[in-house]
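Why should sequence recovery work at all? Because a backbone constrains its sequence more than one might expect. Tight turns favour small or flexible residues, buried strands favour hydrophobic ones, and helices have their own preferences. The token representation captures these environments compactly. In the example below, the structure is given first.
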């Protein structure tokens, strides 16, 4: 069975383990790209946009981890230099 091209808001929320309200906020804030269709403005998210959002989160998380560990790594490097000078 082929994966649907567009996901409903509820499907996105379920995959992220978020509430529909939290998912709607991601869409309204533009963090996750989606479209509103129909007279009632029902959200739809293209699967490729959902997957791109997940990839952006991986990149942001990795950068955050690296930024958090950078001061500790710098401190370790300085300690090693001091040990070598002794």
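From this structural description, the recovered sequence reads:
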């Amino acid at each position: 069975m082929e994966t649907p091209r567009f996901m409903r808001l509820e499907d996105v929320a379920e995959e992220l383990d978020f509430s529909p309200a939290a998912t709607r906020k991601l869409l309204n804030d533009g963090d996750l790209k989606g479209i509103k269709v129909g007279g009632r403005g029902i959200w739809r998210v293209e699967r490729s946009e959902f997957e791109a959002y997940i990839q952006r989160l991986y990149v942001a998380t990795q950068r955050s981890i690296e930024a958090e560990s950078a001061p500790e790594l710098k401190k370790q490097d300085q300690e090693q230099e001091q040990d070598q000078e002794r």
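A few observations help interpret the result. The beta strands are 6-8, 35-37, 42-46.
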